[in-house]
Amino acid sequence: MVNPFHLAIPVRNITEARDFYLHTLGCRQGRSSDHWVDLDLYGHQLVCHLDETLGDEGQVRLIKNDVDDHGVPVPHFGVVLNMTDWQALADRLTTAGVEFIIEPYVRFKGQPGEQATLFFLDPSGNALEFKAFKDWSQLFAVD
Fold first, then answer.
1. Choice between 40 and 60, residue whose per-residue pLDDT is larger
2. Pfam families, from UniProt (predicted)?
3. Where are the domains of the chain?
4. Contacting residues for 87 by C-beta, under 8 A, at least 6 apart
């Protein structure tokens, strides 16, 4: 078994975050309080913590770097999935009407490191990337 990561992120509203991660992404809920909620994100522990400085309509600061002619948000997080699960998630997000920062597409097609990727924001502005590799052995490959 791979060791699961633990990541805590700021959110502007716990109820809104819980709804998004449970219903839009399909996470399962763990422990929670009025100020935080534990979520099972593909076997990893994601914790949404209330950040009252964001306010009701606030967003975490979004910075983008140019990668492959796309404005990639920094920071971002997500999970590397298999291609079948990645496509199911891409379809789920599209059906839910999630606005993509970077639409689902395949990078390095036909090359070492071929991977599918997509980027979007949660309601608080946290950037997420989910990707899948055609060949898992290429996950940490160097050109």
1. 40
2. Glyoxalase
3. 6-138
4. 116, 132
